Give the backbone structure.
Amino acid sequence: MEQKIDIKSMSLQQLTDQLIQMGEKKFRAAQIYSWIHQKLVTNFDEMTNISKNTRTMLKEQFELVCLKQVACKISSIDGTRKYLFGLSDGHVIESVLMRYHHGNSVCISSQVGCRMGCRFCASTLDGLSRNLRPSEMLDQIYRIQQDIGERISNVVVMGSGEPLDNYENLISFLRLLTDANGLGISQRNITVSTCGLVPEMYRFAEENLQITLALSLHASNNEVRKTLMPIANRYALTEVLKACDNYFEKTGRRITFEYSLVKGVNDGQKQADELAELIGNRNCHINLIPVNPIKERDFVQTDAKNVNNFKKLLEKKRINVTIRREMGRDIDGACGQLRKRYMDQLKEENRDGGICTDRCRKDASD
Ligand code: SAH
């Protein structure tokens, strides 16, 4: 069977060209695009101002990607929601809604799994399954906005996956998400986080976008960084920082450096001094994250007192630094943990010949 066209991944221009080629009028494309990207419909029959014949044609030619909610866990501490979504090929991904005073923020996945191999991260434990399509990245936000009935104002691409390792799809997704004919989320309210893929960071600087770039630094020198992040074997810190500086020069957007504190590995005074030296007087911001321990690794979280000390040491050197508030601590907060647990459970139950769906539904209402 011929593959249907993924309509939700198409720009308004692409959709217009395609529909005209199929003999439709130009204004139809704008109507359909609005149904998909503003009214967030989940099937073609909801497009009530489109004739039945056209809807039938759309169903035959196009696929309307729509994620299935497999589970949703709600934190009783801060209202954070962790969603597990099912894709049409059976894979599952996770997304997180965080509620702040300044608005609703969604953290999305960019790949199914990840191949970057960061030692402390649960998303990478089973490697990369596949890239997400633009429609699959968008729909994480669309489904969450529909679920809570409130506008999403901020998006962070900090879930499972390395966004710059799925470059083309990421860029299409960002253009669709910020399109005034769609949700029109402000570019300045979007952050893309990378472990530091240098060539793609240079490319990203040329896209004429106003997106915030976050770099996962996690160490103050190459030696320690190599023990935490395999990507450090490919690109030295000087190269990565040069790419950050270039991004700042080209876009005017201040870089955020993420630094996950691991007890006894990167959280000492020596490291704080070295980090301050490394960052120098760059116009940037450091986000300290106490590492979220995963059971497959024996990394230990730096305790609150030492996190504060580390922060103070940096502040003394006039560095902009914040401690990331831990959200949803009671609901498998760290990247990829909920998905990992779900997958392990699936494997376990398949081994026993059982099916998991009921258990997951129960989980969702827990
Ligand atoms: N691939 C992207 C996005 C990953 S997740 C990147 O590397 O930036 C977003 C951030 O969470 C990254 O800084 C990542 O290193 C960090 N992270 C992942 N697992 C973590 C854990 N268990 N504890 C603390 N931070 C973690």
